[in-house]
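Weekend entry, working from home. Most of the wet-lab plans are on hold until the incubator is repaired, so I used the time to fold the two sequences that have been sitting in the queue since the last round of cloning. Logging both here for the record. First:
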Amino acid sequence: MGFEQLAALKAQLDQGANRKKVASRSTSSPVDVTRELKQPTKPPRTSADAAARAVTILQRHFPHAFPRSPASKVPLKVGILRDVFAQAASLGLSERDARNGVKLWCRGQRYWTCLVEGDVRIDLTGGIAAL
């Protein structure tokens, strides 16, 4: 092929590309404004949110065992989780959420400072639990 033939083929290709651009512009649909203005999505619910919700429910139903701040936390009896599991269904909590709520409650400096060796521990009703 000669140089002139290559130049003619290039010109044909350029014309074909220009036609495709014009055709694609004319056949494209107009922009849908409702599609562009989407509602912000809610962030996914995390286990930390569920645990905090469980603590709030436990505080509402068992205020002596799970006092609200600024009251100091009280040492919970050994095996309190079994008692919470027994009440979880009536409170609308899954076992997982109840476990994570108690775990969140018992984590942290406020709870660990209330634990004293040989001191009394509190059950769900606020009564003194047998050691």
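Second, folded right after the first finished:
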Amino acid sequence: MNNLDHMVPSKRIHGGPDRAGVPAHDFSSNANIVGAPHFVLNAIQQTSFRYYPDPEYVKLRQCLATKHQVDSERILIAGSASEFIYRVTAYVARKSLQDESNLPPIVWFPEYCYGDYQNAADTWQFVSTKNIMEADLVWLCDPSSPLGRSIEGINNLVASLRSEQIAVLDLAYEPLRLEGHLALNQSELDLVWQMWSPNKALGITGIRGAYIIGPTNSQKLIQELNSMASSWVLGAHGVGMLSIWADSRSQDWLNQSLDILRDWKVRQIEVCKQIGWLPLHSVSNFFCVNPQRTNLFEFQSHLRRHAIKLRDTSSFGLADHFRMAVMSPATQSKFLDAVISIGKE
């Protein structure tokens, strides 16, 4: 019996490898398919693994601070974006427990969003709200996932937040934006917690590592959040990745790869239209598509047998759609052939 017939949806749903192994043609993960350049891989390989990283990550934080032109005391190192999602959620929950009001912590997140925001909130028994001004913890993502769009009115939204609210802006896909730019200026960015996880942009999602830029005058909060992390929360591979990310060569290479992705995205959208699938507009290296069919889970299993993996968007709160990363023309052709073949079965 093929174990693909019994793939059970998990609460922690991510793109990439699964129980069936590494998909040969993977549309489910939003990594930069152009692939990491040699100088990035060489820098990571040359990192010394014989010793612990500096537990304070002083040099790394300074490199990242220089890249973003902020004070290094505002840089917080994380094991990954997901690790920080759970850490900051725990922090807000703990703060709520210390409040004499005995009210549960309140969280706000977009209608469609990364499932770990909700999972972390559920773990700490948050109450969700549709009124952003009520929330203790606010989650924003620009470009958003799964839709890959800019947040409408983000300037007014950020400006309206109360100073005691913790608003985290997930910028995982900002380096992979193919249209426009982030609407926030520096003074507006200084009001939120910027969460950067560049492994997608560099095409090396297997290496975990992220960093957060705290708002202006957030040093005390950063120290408290830092105290909640394990020692050496980031290993040597992650240090190597974030260090080379801060190098200007990475940005130069990334800009070149975005030109390639723009061309491939146009072609992939046409492939989807050719088979009657309806793509939704996005500004990033991925987009959602309505395949206009029922039982997406069964169809995903059929595609998986053809070594192709898609990710449905139900874990993001969006039904009846797939999220598709932009892939190379050769992989797009494999996808098209597989869909046509399944239609004949």
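Plan for Monday: verify the second prediction. The first helix runs from residue 38 to 45.
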